Amino acid sequence: MTQPMEINIGISEANREQIAHGLSRLLADSYSLYLKTHNFHWNVSGPMFQTLHQMFEEQYLELATAVDEIAERIRALGYPAPGSYSQFAQLTSIPEETGTPTADEMIRQLVRDQEAVVRTAREVFPAVENANDEPSADLLTQRMQVHEKTAWMLRSLLQ
């Protein structure tokens, strides 16, 4: 069996490990939000059904792409990406929803959860900046922009 090649991308192993752990938390939050948004897409009802059904679909499709990008960045840093429900449950800050809330409550939960993903991304940013990890910084910046905008759009539905 051959030994894996050393990763020499200008970021120390300790920094890569710290960043990969932070990105793993972001991945868990993003996947948990994906699952909840998909659930709400399936189960929304009421006068805003068509609008929310379509909006939630757009959001979970965007998240499906995002989780892949986050996991691939973790792999590029030389670490395995978490990929099981139990791993995600340990790492995520997104509360699980097992019931069928009202449409307004779905929106409130998604606003809260979109903002939670932003906070997680922001918490990872200092380690990324410290290591001069521009690809991870770019990924985090893009994720924060998407989640902040999505939270704003959802929040607007409640006003």
TrEMBL record:
PROSITE patterns (UniProt xref): DPS_1 (PS00818), DPS_2 (PS00819)
InterPro entries assigned to the protein according to its UniProt record, in alphabetical order: DPS_DNA-bd, DPS_DNA-bd_CS, Ferritin-like, Ferritin-like_SF, Ferritin_DPS_dom
Keywords assigned: DNA-binding
Occurrences of domain Ferritin/DPS (ranges): 23-159
Keyword DNA-binding part of the UniProt annotation: yes
CDD domains in the cross-refs: DPS
Gene3D superfamilies: 1.20.1260.10
GO molecular function: DNA binding; ferric iron binding; oxidoreductase activity, acting on metal ions
Family: Belongs to the Dps family.
Name assigned to this protein: Starvation-inducible DNA-binding protein
Organism per entry: Natronocella acetinitrilica
Lineage: Bacteria, Pseudomonadati, Pseudomonadota, Gammaproteobacteria, Chromatiales
